[in-house]
Amino acid sequence: MEETREKEFVAMPRIGDKAPSFTAKSTQGVINFPEDYKGHWVILFSHPADFTPVCTSEFMTFANMEKQYEEANCKLIGLSVDGLYSHIAWLRTIKDKIEYKGMKNIEVKFPLIDDVSMNVANKYGMIQPGEAATQAVRAVFYIDPEGTIRTIIYYPLSIGRNFDELYRVLIALKTTDEFACAAPADWRPGDEVIVPPAGSCGVAEQRMSASDPGVTCHDWFFCTKKLSKEEVLKKVLKK
Asked: Which of 34, 59, 85, 175 could pair with 147 as two cysteines, CB 3.0-4.6 Å apart?
């Protein structure tokens, strides 16, 4: 029985799966997910507990960057297994009392889900018994406008997330979709992207032909193409 229960706790959806649906109360009202977010990218993320320092630093950073995510047509949704009144009190404390790294008077406007029942956390595999049986780890799910999970990132309770990387992943996902390419290591807008070898993934030979001066082939399987920062941002922002 214990083995079965543990498997239920750690079960999680995979990249490429449809995001599990749920209805839940939040600091911004009731959420019907993913129906309420159709047409938007979503970052659904969990944190271990309200009124904890690492989580406070994370929520301040996410709230401070929310406009950037909005410009990329991405909604933020937070979650912990705390109750609604705890969420409200914690977010008020952040706004009224906490100053950190030049951030102050930070108002968290995106919803924070009440998940005392652990219903949503269990559906998304956010409870990892080996780390904590009563707290959600720092999970991050990227969900596209069609409700498909595109990326999953996990952090332990003791380490805060890298928010530059979280934003970079979002822009990279949208860029690879828009331009039918891949993003190499450490890619950022303005860097070269990787184009698939000719004839693969439905990509025409023309993309790698000598007539395209933007393509550089390091070998038959490794070709890159120039893609300006302006071209990328024009495509991926507000879409």
From this structure: 34
